[in-house]
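Incident review: delayed structure delivery

Summary: a single-chain prediction request sat in the queue longer than the usual turnaround. Root cause was a stuck worker, restarted by the on-call engineer. No data loss occurred. The affected request and its eventual output are reproduced below so the record is complete for anyone auditing the incident later.

Affected input:
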Amino acid sequence: MSALTSAAGSLVAQTEEPEGIDLFLPAGYDLLWSAVVLVVIAIVFYKAVLPKFQAVLDERTAKIEGGLAKAESAQAEAAAALAEYHQQLQEARTEAAKIREEARAEGTAIVSDLRAKASDDAARIVETAHRQIEAERQQAAVSLRNDVGLLATELASKIVGESLADSARQSRVVDRFLDELEAAGSAAASAAATASEER
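Output delivered after worker restart:
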């Protein structure tokens, strides 16, 4: 019985609760099996899971680098397009200025041509008007001379009492009468001019 009690006592001693720092430390067999499981998980992770993660990360890196390269090429294209736009804009401004200067020069030439034509046309119109006025004045003088001659002949016939039906005589009477009228008109004009000079 004593052997039985000593075995029970040793069993109780083994199943006793650890105390102090032993409470936080695992048993040796737990440490061994935990280390084995950790090594197996690490090998599986290193052989199976890590390459998949690495492939995903490499693919994502390639996509990011490709996106950056595309962005850089797009930015370079945009800069080239902007430079080309500025160049075309400058060329368009230069062309517009050239066209404006040509139009201004052409407009000036057209205006001077129109002025010259207008001046020529005006001179021609004035000359034509002068000729027409002179022709009408001469026609009126001839008509007036005829009318005055007829009246003078009739008046002279009545005053003299004889007929002036002879055309030669009639013409002489009319010419003498008109000469006297012109002489009287020029004498009156010269008298008016001397009177205005004396004032």
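Verification: The two ends are 187 Å apart (CA to CA).
Action items: add queue-age alerting; document worker restart procedure.
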